[in-house]
Structure formats: structure tokens, C-alpha cells
Amino acid sequence: MQETVLDRPHAGAPRLSAVLKDYYELTKPRIQVLLLITTAGAMWIASKGHVEPVLLLVTLLGGTLAASSANVFNCLIDRDIDLLMERTRRRPIPAGRIQPLQATLFALALGAASFVVLALFANLFAALLAITGIGFYVVVYTLWLKRTTTQNIVIGGAAGAIPPLVGWAAVTGSLDWSAWMLFGIIFLWTPPHFWALAMMIREDYRKAGVPMLPVVVGDEKTARWIFWYTLALLPVTLALYPLGTMGWIYLVAASGLGAWFLAGAARLLRVPHERKEARALFKRSIFYLMLLFVAMGIDSILLR
């Protein structure tokens, strides 16, 4: 007797799970963790350690949807570059598993959902900031800067610095100097973080014709830029103390973490051609930002 689909009730399950996995991959979930940490940290500080749980969850949901939308648009626009790079050629769009129209509709739906969630359950200002972040990342960074200038990640990094503004606005409905200092921290942290990654995969960017800093100026100058940006980051992190936003616990933690991050940048500066040092600094930059915002949270709990 010939077997039918009804005789195999689970035949379609793997295909559905594979499709869902591909759409999930388009949102780049791994890089969203830090964005959510900075959003939650900003909310915690803005509320002086007493953020409403529902508001926190709703804002994180809205932020996740906004970041997902921006990342899907990025995958859509960069599908030609992704096809040329070993690291990205197996992503769903260049591999042909998801079509451009499908990705476009998915990105638009995520962006619309983000705006609705934040506007209804947080406030309109937070929703507008999230949409601004999507627009900046897609239009300014992905469509314009990424393919035209070595300073792409410097200016484009402003998009990644918007999540703490969204978190702050969700709590207060406005932005003050403390919120902009959080923006400045992410803005200055982004180039050392991303250039360390670019040094690791420089040849991929070269093959794709993307003018990342290591491709154009080489490892030595890139390591120098990384060091100076890391050095510039430290006083911005410490500025939260004289502003009265953070207390002495944060001041001590930020000083120690800053010295640790700068030491990693100095090590790379001494041996800029060592890929293992670039990788080590890339990992160090992630832990640095996470621990810095953890220190903000601890400070808010113990000293407020």
C-alpha cells in the first residue's frame, strides 16, 4: 500500500521548524542581548531602582521587536555582501531559504509591532525613539555609510546607542543629561568593539568590498584608533558620578572595568597583527559593557 502524508503526521514539522528557525536567525538574536541589558539598565537608573515590572517587560518586548526589525532590514539590504563573506553566506536570504519580499514584510511587521507596543503600553516618545533607531540603522548605516566610508561604524554606532534612550524615555517620558551620558557610553564603546571584530574577519570584508577600517588603513592604525576610543570612553562612564546619577559603588566599578578594558586595548596596540588579541579584546568589550551596567544596577539598589 502506498504511504500517504496522513500516514506520516509529523512529516511537516521539521520543515515548519526550519522555516521558523530561519526567520528567527534573521533577527540576529545573539547581538540583541547587550541592547536589552542597556535598555533595562537605563530604566532601572531612571526609576532609581524601582522600575515597574510590567513596564520593564513591555519596553524590553518593544525594544526586541525594533531591533529585530532593523536586523532583518540589514540582512535584506546586505544580502549581496553576505553572499561573498564566509561568515554570512549561509544566512537565510543569501542561501535562498527566505525570499526578499518575505523578509521585507517580516521587517515591516516587526517595526509596526514595536511602535504599537511601546506607544500603547509605554509612551509615544519611547515609540518614536525606537522607530528612529530602526531608521538610522537601516538608512544611515546600512544603506549609506557601511559601503562608503571607514567611519561607518562610528556614525552608525548611534543606532546601537538608542536603546538606553528608549528605556529612559519609557520611564520618564523625557531625556536628561544622564540619559545622554548612557547614549555616549554606547556610542564610544561601539567602535572598539566592532573594529576588533573587523580585524578578526578583515579578509571577508575585503572580498565583499566593504571599507571597514582594518581593510583600508591596516591593523596598526586600527589598533591605535581602538585605543584612543577606549581612552575617550572612560571619562564618559565616570561622568555619571558627578552628575549624581550613580554613587561610589559604580564609580569604583567603572574605574576598575575601564582600566581592564584599556589594558586589553593596549595589548592589541602592541601586537596589532595577532588575531587572538583582537578576539580577546572583542570578548572583553562584551563583558565590559555587561558588567558596567550590572554595576549601575547594584549601585541603584544599594545606594538609593
UniProtKB/TrEMBL annotation:
Primary residence: membrane
GO cellular component, one term: plasma membrane
One Pfam short name: UbiA
GO biological process, alphabetically ordered: heme O biosynthetic process
Known catalytic reactions: heme b + (2E,6E)-farnesyl diphosphate + H2O = Fe(II)-heme o + diphosphate
Broadest EC class assigned to this enzyme: transferase
Compartments, record wording: Cell inner membrane; Cell membrane
EC numbers: 2.5.1.141
Cross-referenced PANTHER family: 4-HYDROXYBENZOATE SOLANESYLTRANSFERASE (PTHR43448:SF7), PROTOHEME IX FARNESYLTRANSFERASE, MITOCHONDRIAL (PTHR43448)
Protein name listed in UniProt: Protoheme IX farnesyltransferase
UniProt lineage: Bacteria, Bacillati, Cyanobacteriota, Cyanophyceae, Gloeobacterales
